[in-house]
Amino acid sequence: MTLPAFPALDADSLDRREAVCRQLLESAGRIALEGYLAMGEDTVVAMKGPQDFLTETDGEVEAHLRDALLQRFPGDGFLGEESGGALTARMWVVDPIDGTANFARGIPHFCVSIGFIDNGVIEIGGIANPATGEVYFARRGRGATCNGKPMHVAQTQAYDRASVELGWSRRISTRAYVETIAALIDLGTNVRRSASGALALAFVAQGRLDAYAEMHINPWDCLAGLLLVEEAGGRVNDFLAGHGLSDGNPVLACAPGIANGMEQATSIRLCPQRA
Description:
The chain is α+β, with helices and mostly antiparallel strands.
């Protein structure tokens, strides 16, 4: 999808956006954690669709992010999972709580995800897991960190040592999903699923996982994580190709040592290794 381009941002403009993004990961994380700790048996959890959960905290976190970002940067666009938004070439893409099914069941594996795109390039990405206190951050060309410490993808070369995660979407047939699992198992990998694509990508960047793949994923679930993996030395696919920003796309991110097998097992083409 081609959108009217904006003038390129200078370094100072990106610095300001980076600073605000870091602040919001902390403040939004606090709101999410408060909501999580307040969850009880009588808490109302709505359903947007099969296995698609929505809590009041999702809305509270997204409103906090939207209001703060549009106040500070009124010329930027905003796209959130819950409130949507108009697509522009320069915009923030936000998932207030990725892993809501975990959140709703008291499982401390969920996160806030914030990505910033400028003219089709992911420039800033941050993911906060408030339950563990881990904050992941990347700025294009400046590396990836967890709580300020540099991250690097795993050096795994052997598939029988690899641990990979495969996400699931109802837009993809059950047969295709099962066939991909079978292909990954045949490679020798350990296949898991933990119900947060954003955190899975952060774990790939951190070396806790060797790869994450999903046959269809929405942009708010993956843009921040894709930049984390790139900046940590990993391989990713061109998620924004075609109508990725508006309609979603497949996603694949992995350690370079298992890239060839992951491409074959998932049928998702990776971008060339960044120099």
